[in-house]
Specification:
- The protein contains twelve helices and seven strands.
- Helix 6 links the parallel strand 4 and strand 5.
- The radius of gyration is 18 Å and the shape is globular.
Length: 295
């Protein structure tokens, strides 16, 4: 694979365009842990419960409770890292983000012993293997739009190759990502691409499976599509509730843009079924069979 391919995800600038808007703006409409991904609503009644349940689900799937070291790829404002420290007493927690504002936010909290690195998974070079890896809501940024299917799969494969290299023998990886559902490539929203998440794209389930072949065994796949509609509805409700405060932080056009974006997310997951929400558990294959692909 060409080395260039791994650079074909969202750039630092594209990530910061979205996530470095304002920590206070996101604080207005996310739950108190500042988790910015689909919650798990099975037995939850509040957004906070749904987010904590989701974090615990991934920790369980990745065998994080028994781990000494866990890597969080795309750690956002650090909710999973804090959960691993506070509830599970995991000694070494490392998070990767491309957002400066998120890294500063995490470093300003009492848990400065969580190591947050302002670097891409494509650059990460751990000194020791991790016991578990978790990645929630970041995979959508790993490939730019307009790449061919083959190029996308190459990037995703590089991701699984790295995770394979970084994990202990028998280690688990828990991945959550939005994926294409009932959607053709030309259906992808220009508004999302231009205004909300530049340089990003959605994988298909088959592309993820192909990219992980002979590196990871897929243990479980869940599609919790409707969980995203409930989550986005909660976010939009909070944003509307705090509209006046939002207007003190940012301008009217930005607030309107975010309301539109969250409305489109609700429609996409609930009505058009154009997007799915995958939660996939992988177990590292210790002796990968296909040496040529792995090397
Ligand atoms: C939607 S947020 C999810 C954050 C967090 N996992 C959560 O659930 O709250 C996506 C995260 O992925 C990170 N990200 C995007 N591309 C990345 C890359 N190439 N390497 C590392 N992190 C990346 C962003 O900086 C951001 O923290």
């Amino acid at each position: 694979m060409e080395n260039n391919n791994v650079k074909q995800g969202a750039s630092k600038q594209a990530i910061q365009y979205h996530y470095d808007k304002s920590n206070l703006f996101f604080k207005l409409w996310l739950d108190p842990t500042m988790t910015y991904s689909c919650g798990m609503w099975e037995n939850a009644t509040t957004l906070l419960d749904a987010q904590l349940q989701k974090l615990d689900f991934h920790i369980l799937q990745a065998r994080g409770a028994e781990a000494t070291s866990v890597l969080d790829i795309g750690c956002g404002w650090g909710s999973l890292m804090h959960r691993l420290k506070d509830e599970y007493g995991v000694r070494n927690v490392t998070g990767l983000t491309l957002s400066k504002a998120q890294a500063e936010w995490i470093n300003s909290k009492p848990h400065s012993d969580c190591q947050v690195l302002l670097e891409s998974w494509t650059q990460h070079q751990p000194t020791r293997p991790y016991d578990s890896i978790i990645s929630i809501g970041a995979f959508e940024h790993f490939a730019k739009r307009h790449l061919s299917k083959e190029q996308r799969i190459n990037i995703y494969r590089r991701f699984f190759l790295n995770c394979h290299r970084w994990l202990q023998k028998g280690g688990y990886l828990s991945l959550q990502t939005i994926g294409c559902g009932n959607m053709l490539r030309q259906d992808f929203s220009q508004f999302f691409e231009r205004e909300i998440f530049p340089e990003s794209d959605l994988p298909r389930l088959g592309e993820i499976a192909e990219a992980a072949e002979c590196l990871f065994e897929i243990i479980q796949v869940r599609n919790d599509r409707l969980d995203y509609a409930i989550t986005a509805r909660e976010w939009r409700k909070n944003l509307k509730k705090h509209a006046a405060e939002a207007l003190e932080i940012t301008d009217k056009a930005t607030v309107a843009k975010y309301e539109q974006y969250l409305g489109m997310v609700i429609l996409g997951f609930e009505v058009f079924e154009s997007m799915n929400l995958y939660r996939i558990t992988f177990r590292r294959i210790n002796k990968p069979r296909e040496e040529k692909r792995v090397g």
